[in-house]
From TrEMBL:
Chain intervals for the UniProt region annotation (Disordered): 1-32
Name of the protein in question: Molybdopterin cofactor-binding domain-containing protein
Superkingdom of origin: Bacteria
Residue ranges of every copy of the Aldehyde oxidase/xanthine dehydrogenase a/b hammerhead domain listed in the record: 41-147
Organism: Streptomyces roseoverticillatus
SUPFAM superfamilies, A to Z: CO dehydrogenase molybdoprotein N-domain-like (SSF54665), Molybdenum cofactor-binding domain (SSF56003)
Length: 772
C-alpha cells in the first residue's frame, strides 16, 4: 500500500514484451469516457440540476410505520397552504394503481395498507421546495398500526401481507441421486445482510407536461422503456404519450431511480400543467429504492475422503421486503449457482423468496449469486479444515471446466478456466508482514489512531471463487437495437443503452472506430423515442447493445465499400478502412471516407438477440442462462483478535474476461467491484428494528472509504473468447462483487479460527481467544 493508505492497483501486462503497443483507438484501446472531464470538473449536468420555466417542486409523504392499516387521509390543510398547487393520493391515479417488474404488486400510493417503512402515501406540488415539504407534513393520516412481519421464516405462517400471499416463488432444484452420501459431511448456517446500492448523487427527476396531454420525465433511468410503459399504465395514457429522457446518470450498481418517485412526479405534472421537480433526500432513497436481498442459507456438503464433492444440500430464503420486484430472478440465480463453480454430481436445493414488512429488495449487482457464494465458500473452508487440506487445494480438486454441468442440468459451453484463475491468485506472492515500527502504525486494523496493539493482530489468507450469468435468464428476450449514421468524417450512434458507468458509450465509440476507421464518433443521448435496448444489468449492454452497434456499423461499411469495390472490379473484403482512409490491398485504391461519401449520409439499423433460454422447470432444471463469467480472489487480512477490527491488506484477482475491450475500463470495473464487495463484507448493512430503518444516512450506513480499500492486484485476465458473444467478451463488473466478500470472510476465518457465517462481518465474529 502506498503512503497514507491510498489504494495501489497493479495489473498484468496485456501485451507481450516487445510486442505491439496498445492501440490508440478502436477495440483494445484505453479510450477515456466522453463525460469524464465534465464529471471531474463538476460541470456535468445531473438530474438534480435540471430546470424549466414555471417549475414547481414536489415532496412525498411517506409512512412512518412498516405495517399499518390506513383509516383516513385528510389533505385539506395541505391543499389550503399558500403556494400549494396540487395534492395527490391513491384516489388520483387515473390508470393502474400498482406497478412492478414482473408482478404489479406495488402501489403508486398506499391506499388501505402500508407494507413498509417509507412507503409513499401522498405527493404535493408547490412553488417552493420548503412549502412542498411543509404541505406534505400537514397531510393528516390516521393509522391502525399492525404487527410487522420482519422474520422471513415467519412469513410462511403469518397472515398474508398482500392479496398474492407471502410466497413470491419457490424453486425446488433436484439433480442426481437423493440417496447419495459422502464420507465427510459439513453443515453451516449463513446470513447475508441488506446492502444498499448507494447510487452516487441524489435521486431526482423533472416531469414536463406536453401539449398533447402526455408527459416527459427527465431522470437517470437505467431501463427507460420499461419505466415508460410502467408510467403510461399508471397515468392511463398510451405509451407514445409518455417519454422518458435519460439525463445525468452519475453511476449505478443496481436500480438507479425508484419508480415510487418517478410516478408521483408525472402525476403532479399532469395535474398542475406545470413542470414539476423532485430531488429525494438520502433518507428517502434508503427508504424507497430496492436493496440487496437479505438471505438466510442452510448448507450441508458431502465429500469423499479425498475431498471430492459428492452432494450439496441447501435451503435458501430471500427476504424480498414488501413487494416482489426482481426477487424471482434473484432466486433463480441463487438456486442455480448454489453449488458454485464446482463439479457436484448430486444437488438438492430449496429456494424461496417471500414478502415481509422489511424495506424493498431488488436488483443490485450480482443479486442471488453473491449471497450463495459467501455460503458455499464457507462450506469449502469447513470441508478443507475437516479433511486437513489446504483450502486452495480442496477447491482445485473440485473446480468445473468447460463441458461440465450446472445443477440445473445446463452444460457450461463457454470458457470456464476456473482452475487457471485459482492457481494464478494462489501462486501470486503474498504481501510482507506488518512491522512494529511506530512510523507504520497505520497498517494496524483501526487506522492511525486505532486502539489495537500489534501483538493482537493475526494475519489470514482466504480464497473465493465466484460466478455470474450474463444477460437475463429464464427466457428473457434480450434484444437491443442500434443505428449508426455516417456523415463526412463523423459517425453517430443511436442506441437506448444507458451509460451507467459500465462504459457502454465508450465501447460504442470504439466499435465504430474499429469497423469504420473514423475517430469522430458521437453517441446520442438516450430517450424512449429510440427503439428499446433493455435494462443496464448483468453487463448485458456489452453483449447485446455492443453487438447491435457492431452489426449496424458493418452494414454501413458494406454500403460504403461495395460501390468502390465494384468500380475497381474487386471484392469489398479486399478494402480496408483506417484513420479515415480507404485503401485496397494492392494500393491501387486510396481515398478518404469523406471523398467516398461524396456528400451522402449512410446509415443502418441492426438488432442483436442472443440465443434463447428457458425457464427452470418444476425440478429446477433448464438451460436458463446465455453465458457465465468466473473470478478467483485471494484476500489477505489483518485482524485484531482482541477488538475484532479487520483490515483488508490485499486482494489478488484473476478473472475470466473473454476479451479485454478497453484495458483502462476493465481495470476500473474490477477495482469498483472489489470495492463494493469489501463494503458488503465489512461495513455495509442497512439495519432495521421491527421493520423500521435505523439511521438511513451515511453515518448509519457505512460505505468503505479510500482508506478502507486494499491494494488490488489483478494478477491475470484470461482472454479465452466466448465464441457466441460479440467480440468474445464477458461480463466484468459483477463477478468481483460476488466473489470478494466470500474471500474476505475466508481470510478472517483463517486469522481467527472463528466460523464467520454472517456478512457484513461483525466485530464480535472476528474476536478470537488470544494465548497469554
Amino acid at each position: 500500500m502506498t503512503d497514507g493508505g491510498a489504494t495501489a492497483i497493479t495489473v498484468p501486462t496485456l501485451a507481450s514484451p516487445g510486442g505491439p503497443a496498445e492501440p490508440t483507438h478502436g477495440i483494445g484501446a484505453s479510450l477515456p469516457p466522453a463525460d469524464a472531464e465534465a464529471k471531474t470538473q463538476g460541470i456535468y449536468p445531473y438530474a438534480a440540476d435540471l430546470w424549466a420555466e414555471g417549475l414547481l417542486w414536489a415532496a412525498l409523504l411517506r409512512s412512518p410505520h412498516p405495517h399499518a392499516r390506513i383509516l383516513s387521509i385528510d389533505t385539506s390543510e395541505a391543499a389550503r397552504m399558500p403556494g400549494v398547487r396540487a395534492v395527490v393520493t391513491h384516489a388520483d391515479v387515473p390508470g393502474d394503481a400498482a406497478h412492478g417488474r414482473k408482478v404489479a404488486d406495488r402501489p403508486v400510493f398506499a391506499s388501505d395498507i402500508v407494507r413498509h417503512h417509507g412507503e409513499p402515501i401522498a405527493a404535493v406540488a408547490a412553488d417552493h421546495p420548503d412549502t412542498a415539504r411543509l404541505a406534505a407534513a400537514a397531510i393528516a393520516v390516521e393509522y391502525e398500526v399492525l404487527e410487522p412481519v420482519t422474520d422471513p421464516e415467519r412469513a410462511f405462517s403469518a397472515e398474508p401481507l398482500h392479496p398474492d400471499g407471502n410466497l413470491i416463488r419457490h424453486i425446488p432444484l433436484r439433480f442426481g441421486d437423493p440417496e447419495a452420501i459422502g464420507e465427510v459431511i459439513v453443515e453451516g448456517l449463513y446470513r447475508i445482510g441488506r446492502q444498499d446500492p448507494a447510487p452516487i448523487g441524489a435521486e431526482a427527476g423533472l416531469a414536463v407536461p406536453r401539449p398533447d396531454g402526455g408527459v416527459e420525465i427527465y431522470t437517470a433511468s437505467t431501463d427507460p422503456h420499461a419505466d415508460r410503459d410502467l408510467a403510461a399504465a399508471c397515468f392511463g395514457l398510451a405509451p407514445e404519450r409518455v417519454k422518458i429522457v435519460v439525463t445525468g446518470v452519475p453511476g449505478a450498481t443496481g436500480d438507479r431511480e425508484d419508480p415510487g418517485m418517478q410516478l408521483p412526479l408525472g402525476l403532479l405534472a399532469l395535474r398542475t400543467g406545470h413542470p414539476v421537480k423532485l430531488v429525494a433526500t438520502r433518507e428517502e432513497s434508503f427508504l424507497g429504492h430496492p436493496h440487496r436481498h437479505p438471505t438466510l442459507l442452510r448448507y450441508r456438503h458431502h465429500a469423499d475422503a479425498d475431498g471430492k464433492l459428492v452432494k450439496v444440500e441447501a435451503q435458501i430464503l430471500l427476504d424480498a421486503g414488501a413487494y416482489a420486484d426482481s426477487s424471482s430472478d434473484a432466486l433463480a440465480a441463487a438456486v442455480a449457482f448454489a453449488c458454485g463453480p464446482y463439479v457436484v454430481p448430486h444437488a438438492f436445493v430449496e429456494g424461496w423468496a417471500v414478502r415481509t414488512n422489511n424495506p424493498p429488495s431488488g436488483h443490485v449487482r450480482g443479486e442471488g449469486a453473491m449471497q450463495v457464494c459467501a455460503a458455499y465458500e464457507g462450506q469449502m473452508d469447513k470441508l478443507a479444515a475437516r479433511l486437513g487440506l489446504d483450502p486452495a487445494e480442496l477447491r482445485l480438486r473440485n473446480v468445473m471446466a468447460t463441458g461440465d454441468l450446472l445443477p440445473t442440468g445446463q452444460t457450461v459451453t463457454c470458457p470456464a478456466p476456473v482452475a487457471e484463475l485459482l492457481r494464478a491468485v494462489r501462486d501470486y506472492p503474498l504481501p510482507a508482514l506488518p512491522t512494529d515500527d511506530p512510523e507504520e502504525e497505520w497498517v494496524l486494523p483501526g487506522g492511525p489512531d486505532g486502539a489495537g496493539e500489534p501483538g493482537a493482530v493475526r494475519r489470514g489468507v482466504g480464497y473465493g471463487l465466484g460466478m455470474v450469468h450474463m444477460l437475463g435468464a429464464e427466457g428473457a428476450d434480450e434484444v437491443s437495437t442500434a443505428t449508426v449514421k455516417v456523415t463526412g468524417p463523423t459517425a453517430t450512434v443511436i442506441c437506448a443503452a444507458v451509460e451507467t458507468g459500465q462504459g457502454f458509450s465508450t465501447l460504442a465509440r470504439q466499435i465504430v472506430q474499429e469497423v469504420l476507421g473514423l475517430d469522430e464518433v458521437y453517441v446520442a443521448p438516450v430517450d424512449t423515442d429510440q427503439p428499446p435496448s433493455g435494462p443496464g444489468a448483468h453487463s448485458r449492454h456489452t453483449w447485446v447493445s455492443g453487438g447491435a452497434v457492431e452489426r449496424a456499423a458493418r452494414m454501413v461499411r458494406t454500403q460504403l465499400l461495395q460501390p468502390l469495390a465494384a468500380q475497381f472490379g474487386m471484392s469489398a473484403e479486399l478494402l480496408t478502412i483506417a484513420d479515415g482512409k480507404i485503401t485496397s490491398y494492392d494500393g491501387v485504391l486510396s481515398t478518404t471516407v469523406a471523398e467516398a461519401l461524396d456528400g451522402k449520409e449512410l446509415w443502418a439499423t441492426a438488432q442483436c438477440r442472443p440465443h434463447p433460454t428457458e425457464p427452470l422447470d418444476e425440478s429446477g432444471q433448464g438451460d436458463a442462462f446465455v453465458g457465465i463469467a468466473f473470478c478467483a480472489v485471494r484476500a489477505v487480512v489483518d485482524v485484531d483478535v482482541e477488538l475484532g477490527s479487520v483490515r483488508v491488506v490485499e486482494m489478488a484477482v484473476a478473472q475470466d474476461v473473454g476479451r479485454v475491450l478497453n484495458p483502462a475500463q476493465a481495470k476500473a470495473r474490477i477495482e469498483a467491484g472489489i470495492t463494493q464487495g469489501v463494503g458488503a463484507a465489512l461495513t455495509e448493512n442497512l439495519r432495521t428494528a421491527g421493520g423500521m430503518v435505523r439511521r438511513p444516512d451515511f453515518t448509519g450506513y457505512a460505505l468503505p472509504t479510500s482508506l478502507d480499500i486494499p491494494d488490488v492486484h489483478i494478477v491475470k485476465l484470461v482472454e479465452e473468447r466466448d465464441v457466441v458473444a460479440p467480440f468474445g467478451a464477458k461480463a466484468i463488473s459483477a463477478v468481483p462483487v460476488v466473489t470478494s466478500p466470500a474471500a474476505v470472510a475466508a481470510a478472517v476465518r483463517a486469522a481467527t479460527g472463528r466460523p464467520v457465517n454472517r456478512l457484513p462481518i461483525r466485530p464480535q465474529a472476528a474476536v478470537a481467544v488470544v494465548n497469554s
